[in-house]
Inverse folding.
C-alpha cells in the first residue's frame, strides 16, 4: 500500500470514500455525487474502470486496484501541512 489509499465504492447516488493511511484527514469528503468527484480521484477511476473485472484484483502499480465492479482502491501521495 502506498502512503495513502482511498477505498472508493460506487453507488447509485455517487461515491463512498474511506481513507486509509496518512495525510488524508480532511482532504476528501466521505461521499461525492458522480458529477462532483475531484479530478484527483476521477482520473485514476477512469483508468481502473477499463480493467477487467476481478478476480483476481487488477492492480496498476502507483495508481490503484479494481477490487470488484464497483469497488476501487486509489493510491495517492499524502498532502502534508
Amino acid at each position: 500500500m502506498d502512503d495513502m489509499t482511498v477505498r472508493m465504492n460506487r453507488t447509485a447516488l455517487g461515491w463512498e470514500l474511506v481513507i486509509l493511511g496518512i495525510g488524508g484527514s480532511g482532504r476528501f469528503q466521505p461521499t461525492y455525487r458522480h458529477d462532483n468527484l475531484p479530478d484527483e480521484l476521477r482520473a485514476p477511476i477512469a483508468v481502473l474502470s477499463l480493467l477487467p473485472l476481478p478476480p483476481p484484483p487488477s492492480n496498476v502499480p502507483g495508481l490503484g486496484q479494481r477490487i470488484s465492479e464497483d469497488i476501487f482502491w486509489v493510491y495517492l501521495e499524502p498532502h502534508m501541512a
